[in-house]
Amino acid sequence: MSGWTAHDIPDQRGRIAVVTGANGGLGHAVARELARKGARVVLACRSEARGTAAVDRLRADMPEADVELRLLDLGDLASVRSFAAAFPYERLDVLVNNAGVMALPYGTTADGFETQFGVNHLGHFALTGLLLPALLAAPGARVVTVSSLMHAMADIDLRDLNSERRYRRWVAYGRSKTANLLFTHELARRAAAHGADLVAAAAHPGYAATDLQTAGARAAGQRAVERVMRIGNRLLAQSARAGALPVLYAATAPDVRPDAFLGPSFAMWRGAPGPSWRAPRTRDDRAARLLWAASERLTGVTYDALKG
């Protein structure tokens, strides 16, 4: 892994990838490099205008890029179901669950879930389950879910998944990122138990400069915090392109193990991708199973091919 860069991505010709939140930031960087290596990339975006602009940027830089836009709102399960029902390909080689929100004021999704838990975890849980037949049809398919070192801030609360008792926006964010890792753990376990040729892994970008850091403060009207975040992005963070490397490694490198968690190798902040520390509770079998059962109940999406 030492010194691994986007130039080391294996040839992706003939492979199909879906990247959520690919209109900007990490998602756009991931989509760009997969397309550069020859993959057919579906940019799954909530905004048609921003998604179209992202596709146009890719085609302007790489006229040969095989990219397309499909609308997906992870905060609306009807949209998730529509995206999956209209998915035009019989197989899916790479699913990158990247889109997310961070530290927003309290709100709910179209289905009444707390926004961060609903978008960051439940939306991707439903999407992955609905696309599972296409994933299982692709030998060696990858599901890469983008978590964060901020998962260390909070464990999930199975009695209060939607933060109805008390809402603290950073705690809610940490819980959603813990949920991402528990989901990866349980998906990897189920795939292995059923002999499925599917690798479920997770990754984080370290500290990468994207709009994610400023969006929450902007939504809360915290202009001073937003300014501090912008300064931090400018002075301390690595680029979105560099932050995307662990995600790209998880999505394409041949030696990625199921339930791996990858991130920048230098102090988990920046640099080439490598194995990342994760809280031991994110490998708790019981918590992962209980979260899975709750997620199936809340979304109505069941992973029939990986039952048990």
TrEMBL record:
InterPro entries: NAD(P)-bd_dom_sf (IPR036291), SDR_fam (IPR002347). Gene3D superfamilies: NAD(P)-binding Rossmann-like Domain. The keyword Protein biosynthesis does not apply. Keywords: Oxidoreductase. The keyword Oxidoreductase applies. It comes from the Bacteria. NCBIfam families: PRK06197.1 (NF004846). PANTHER family: PHOSPHATIDYLINOSITOL-GLYCAN BIOSYNTHESIS CLASS F PROTEIN, PHOSPHATIDYLINOSITOL-GLYCAN BIOSYNTHESIS CLASS F PROTEIN-RELATED. Belongs to the short-chain dehydrogenases/reductases (SDR) family. This is Oxidoreductase. It comes from Streptomyces bullii.
